[in-house]
């Protein structure tokens, strides 16, 4: 099937193919089968105004930059997945967004689960010293202790401690278990 025929097939079938080059991946039969992704994430992409400035912030938190990135796509190894920084403009272009600007509450937050209640204010202090902004100071909650900060680009982070969370020996979350009170 030619690229043009594949694009026409996709359009008639109601499938979205962004470009004729994408049609090269269509099977020769012209039929597209769907498979579910495995239940994991590999990359968290954060669009930032200034990649170098954001790298300095995350390094000031104590995180180590991966040597396999580059100045336009910086990775921090998070133990089996990566937090990646790239410019908002490049991210928007790749996602075919009409604008790189965003405003208001995004409804997305990244959470760090602390090892103790004492760790919550210490991590918050480190984030502020690195250039973050406190959104919610350390507060006792119904479940434990929590605080929120934003990085220099406004990405929301929660620092949380709750007795219910279960971790393995490497402080990785055991998702399917909770501690009983």
Q: Sheet with the most strands? A: 4 strands, mixed
Instruction: List low-pLDDT spans.
Output: 1-15
Report the β-strand fraction as a percent range. 25-35%
Bin the helical content: 10-25%
Total DSSP helices: 4
**Which shape, going by the Cα principal axes?**
globular
Sheet/helix structural class: alpha/beta
- Quaternary structure state of the chains depicted: single chain
Q: What is the mean pLDDT?
A: 85
List the strand order in the largest sheet.
Answer: 4-7-6-5
What is the CA-atom radius of gyration, in angstroms? 21 Å
From N to C, what is the helix and strand string? HEHEEHEHEEEEE
Distance between the termini: 62 Å
Q: What is the total tally of β strands?
A: 9
Topology (SSEs and partners):
Layout: H1 3-13, E1 43-48, H2 51-60, E2 73-77, E3 82-87, H3 88-94, E4 109-113, H4 119-130, E5 133-140, E6 144-150, E7 156-162, E8 165-167, E9 173-178
Parallel strand pairs: 1-3, 4-7
Antiparallel strand pairs: 2-3, 5-6, 6-7, 8-9
Helix pairs in contact: 2-4
Brief summary:
The relative contact order is 0.12. With 181 residues, the protein is an alpha/beta fold.
Characterise this structure.
The protein has 4 helices and 9 strands. Helices cover 22% and strands 29% of the residues. The termini are far apart. It is of the alpha/beta class and 181 residues long. Strand 5 and strand 6 (144-150) form a beta hairpin. A 4-stranded mixed beta sheet has the order 4-7-6-5, covered by helices on one side. It is globular. The longest helix is centred in the last third of the chain and has 12 residues, at 119-130. It has helices spanning 3-13, 51-60, 88-94, 119-130; strands spanning 43-48, 73-77, 82-87, 109-113, 133-140, 144-150, 156-162, 165-167, 173-178. Mean pLDDT is 85; it is low at 1-15.
